[in-house]
Design brief:
The complex is a heterodimer of chains A (about 120) and B (about 210). Chain A is α+β, with helices and mostly antiparallel strands and about 120 residues long. Chain A has three helices and six strands. Classes of the chains: A alpha+beta (about 120), B alpha/beta (about 210).
Chain lengths: ~120, ~210
């Protein structure tokens, strides 16, 4: 059986970057596939990889990560500024992030419009 | 041109001018494992210093420590670019020592390699902030829409570090340059074969263009 856990953005919005990553990794380390509303900041994504590497051992082999993030291609300056302002005030709730333990998720294939998740079991 | 693009262009020009004034430039080779970073580093060093930089292997995570070659000078017409070349371990989100056993290593060596590989990835991410320009080396035969690639490029963009995207292994039939261009439309992509030297002059020209 595969467990998919949904995490709404409001559950991480008040947390520091370090605590956010700790929370996400603790869920994934329970062998659950995490579906997070929105996305992490760019530097948090890099930090997530770093923290994952620090925790790798014989049992925990790392994570598979995928992000769907819809972007309007012909967005004008006002739309971009509006989006940046909303993200600054409310956090980046656009799209969603999938994080799965590498022992459960074999591969996540993604393109701008879809995500395909291949499991090991 | 929209106002946003104009401001971005102005900011890029300012950063490039600042970049040119620095004395000890660091150019980093980043990307996922087995993309050909060390093969490209070797090609650059062989072309301009007459010696290779590091060992390559078909088994992933051959480079597990940051490698630096100092004072590499490349020339093109009247231009010259001198920099320290930094070859970094491939960035991945998972390391399984059993993959190394499947690749022919003994259990003890496989575990050691996995441990070193995780440390190498941590170091590579830490070094991002020190880079003045980054060449992202992708394997042109592999789907570029991976979150690792997007995270690397996104972090460089967020840090305002100039980027040159290289689609390596274009000598192979499966190589798809157009797919990499489509995945990262904001960057110029140079298709090369670091192993055989295909289009390597185009790579040097593009490096000058990004650096100046």
């Amino acid at each position: 059986m595969i467990t998919l856990q949904f995490l709404p953005y409001y559950e991480i919005e008040d947390l520091s970057s370090a605590k956010r990553i700790k929370k996400l990794l603790s869920i994934v380390r329970e062998d659950k596939i995490l579906l997070l509303e929105g996305r992490l900041k760019k530097d948090e994504e890099a930090e997530l990889i770093k923290k994952t590497m620090e925790q790798i051992d014989d049992n925990f082999k790392g994570i598979e990560l995928g992000v769907i993030y819809p972007e309007k291609k012909d967005a004008d300056i006002f739309f971009s500024l509006k989006k940046k302002l909303i993200n600054m005030l409310l956090g980046d709730r656009h799209g969603f992030t999938i994080i799965g333990p590498a022992t459960v998720v074999k591969e996540i294939k993604q393109d701008p419009g879809k995500i395909q998740l291949y499991t090991k079991k | 041109m929209t106002m946003l693009k104009f401001v971005q262009k102005l900011l890029n020009k300012f950063l490039h001018d600042l970049f040119r004034k620095k004395k000890h430039l660091k150019i980093g080779l980043y990307g996922p494992p087995n993309g050909g970073k060390t093969t490209l580093a070797n090609k650059i060093c062989k072309d301009w210093l007459g010696e290779e930089m590091g060992k390559t292997s078909s088994l992933a995570h051959e480079t597990r420590e940051i490698q630096i070659k100092e004072q590499v000078s490349i020339k093109s017409k009247e231009k010259e670019l001198t920099f320290n070349l930094v070859d970094t371990p491939g960035i991945a989100t998972k390391i399984d020592y059993e993959d190394f056993i499947k690749g022919g290593l003994k259990s003890k060596d496989a575990k050691k390699r996995a441990k070193e590989a995780t440390k190498g990835i941590i170091d590579a991410i830490k070094w991002l902030d020190d880079m003045d320009l980054v060449v992202v080396v992708l394997d042109a035969t592999i789907d570029p829409y991976s979150q690792v690639n997007i995270t690397i490029v996104g972090n460089l963009q967020a840090r305002n570090i100039p980027v040159l995207l290289v689609a390596n292994k274009v000598d192979l039939k499966k190589a798809d340059l157009k797919k990499i261009e489509a995945a990262f439309p904001q960057y110029e992509v140079v298709g090369i074969s670091a192993k055989y030297g295909n289009n390597i002059n185009d790579f040097y020209e593009a490096l000058f263009k990004v650096a100046y």
